[in-house]
Specification:
The structure is a homodimer. Chain A has a domain of about 120 residues: Cytochrome P460 (Chalcone isomerase, 3-Layer(bba) Sandwich), CATH 3.50.70.20. Chain A has about 200 residues and is of the alpha+beta class. Chain A is about 15% helix and about 25% strand. The interface between A and B is large, with 51 and 51 residues.
């Protein structure tokens, strides 16, 4: 996999500003449960569509302009082990993997006369994984080309700084996950940065 | 639950034309695995958000006009036992329950500048359940008010006829479920009505 710019820009995991320069991994400690690296790379979890669904968005972006007439859905999933911990604690354990899948949108077909549905074209898949012993800041992003194992995106990429600055819980955008936000609120795990943004109406 | 018109009209399970006149159930045979009736009603499955996610749509409708500036997402889930059978066979066993959840859509918030995300407001929940020994045609629809147990929607409602006429597999709209359609195609379980529509470009 060569150095490239991430092909799809989504807010759900806020990978938008990630220039995918791949880091050289540090000597590898043991992986937490749920994560299995192969030759220093993360394989795309084969069964992520059977994981816990968190949300979908349409055309979400940091940018105020898009391509007219072009629409994309994003779907976000998390591994069940991590979901069970979040449900209890309002935050994420080591071994958490969140998968962002981007899909094409269809409009008029069969009996549908209006609105948009998801079609069979997976435009991209990215992962946000937590492994405190391995990754600077605890988390790393991975962008998958042709579903092949991927190296982490370099931690100098803007996505990491943006997640730290704006994400509601432990660098994840829980403010866009409607079933997670009330759990985090009850567990008092919302980040100071997010609470300050809410206070100032950002 | 009183007789009423279904409060949200969606294509994913094609409940759009269902006038929710509730039928008197026949003497009840034993329920298949996965379905537990209480006093002849179906309780809303409490854990459906942990089931297998099928797809999401935005503003899908049989009708070509909608409310300007008003958007809704729909999410569809199926129970894992039914999914495992579909994956193997391309069709649904007794005990299948598909849940359609409709959610409000937000736009500009936090760092999102464009597009739509799902917010915390669940606008409605409906179920399409398969129980061949109980339901005329094998399936029934249920619309839940305030998440309370619901009686099946009367089988004279248009939704049943529409599903029979247009749905790709066993009265379910597999043509809108991108991970299911290739399975049904391989298993040769697409309905003659759907295949005829595809042939004629409907």
């Amino acid at each position: 996999m060569t150095s490239r710019t991430a092909p799809f820009l989504q807010i759900a995991l806020a990978l938008a500003a990630c220039a995918a320069v791949h880091a050289t991994p540090a000597p590898a400690p043991a992986a937490p449960p749920g994560i299995a690296y192969v030759d220093g790379k993360l394989p795309l979890p084969a069964d992520y569509r059977e994981w816990i669904y968190l949300t979908s968005g349409l055309d979400m972006s940091y940018r105020s302009v898009g391509l007219p007439g072009h629409h994309m859905f994003d779907n976000v999933f998390v591994n069940p082990e991590a979901w069970r911990v979040f449900r209890q604690t309002g935050t994420w354990p080591d071994g958490t993997m969140m998968v962002l899948e981007t899909r094409g949108a269809g409009d008029k077909a069969s009996i549908n006369k209006r609105g948009l549905f998801q079609d069979g074209d997976v435009m991209g898949v990215e992962v946000h994984a937590k492994d405190s012993r391995r990754f600077d800041g605890g988390w790393a992003f991975f962008a998958f080309d042709d579903r092949q194992p991927a190296r982490e995106i370099d931690h100098a990429a803007d996505c990491y700084a943006c997640h730290r600055a704006h994400a509601a819980v432990d660098t994840t955008f829980v403010q866009f996950y409607p079933t997670l936000l009330p759990i985090a609120r009850s567990a008092n795990t919302l980040s100071p940065a997010y609470l300050a943004q809410q206070k100032h109406g950002d």
